[in-house]
Amino acid sequence: MNFKSRTYWLFLLPTLLALLLVLIIPFFQGVYYSFTEYNGFQVTGFVGLDNYIKLFSDEQFLYSLGFTGAFSLASVIGINVIGLAFALLVTQKLGKASTFFRTVYFMPNLIGGIILGFIWQFVFLKAFTGISEVTGLEFFRGWLADTETGFWGLVILFVWQMSGYIMVIYISFLNNVPQELLEAATIDGANKWQSFWKVKFPLIIPAFTVSLFLTLSNAFKVYDQNMALTGGGPFGSTEMTTMNIYDTAFKVQEMGYAQSKAIVFLIVITLISVIQLYFTRKKETEL
């Protein structure tokens, strides 16, 4: 082994060791615990597939899966539409204002989920109630006390947090669109909408692959925003799957059962992500 190879492995080994200790070993431990009765301290028995059979009759877990799926769908659409709109806005010739808007739009992504949850809790509980009292509109009253408005509250929070991050991805692709193509389209009589739809949009399709994957995976993993904003209420109607798994593990102390839920949730996320990547990459090749 020459010096170059030794240096390569010297720098690579710490990363491989971290992955082994933090990801790979805990993953296989979790798979093992999902087949047992485990309370966080000791394994009290091996139950085989009982945990998995039990979760398919767990109404709250199944409801949380459906709620998380609906939340993810609404969030992915909102984030990508608004993120692309922001990107189109800040890539116009706005001078120094462009940098200002980029900074403002990206800032929510720098705020932690817990803090974001409390910020929007104040907005929905205090600001909205104040608006309702001034205007007399009942629409703004009790947003977090109702399942439907609580759902949209979570969506608004997550879209506000992630849109600026996704904007950066779209900006990088929009900046790589050849100006010659846009100038040729203008000479041929294309208006701004036609230039975007016929020239820019096909060239930024790869950005959708990246952005959809990131927004999907992050939407399914939401926990701290859910805990801070609604706490799963009212009566568990806004409880997302991550919160359901956490409560099963640390409140009920059924960690083996919680692990089986986590494994099923992992499989669901993986399947959805693979399907999404397949269709978006297929669209790339078609265009």
UniProtKB/TrEMBL annotation:
Q: Where in the cell is it found?
A: Cell membrane
Biological process (GO) annotations held by this record are:
transmembrane transport
The ABC transmembrane type-1 domain extends over 65-276
Residues crossing the lipid bilayer are 7-28, 61-89, 110-131, 151-173, 201-220, 262-279
Membrane topology, as annotated, equals: Multi-pass membrane protein
Recorded hits in InterPro entries, A to Z, give: MetI-like, MetI-like_sf, UgpAE/MalFG_permease
Which CDD domains does the UniProt record give? TM_PBP2
Cited Pfam families = BPD_transp_1
Key words of the record: Cell membrane, Membrane, Transmembrane, Transmembrane helix, Transport
Family note: Belongs to the binding-protein-dependent transport system permease family.
Q: What is this protein called?
A: Carbohydrate ABC transporter membrane protein 1, CUT1 family
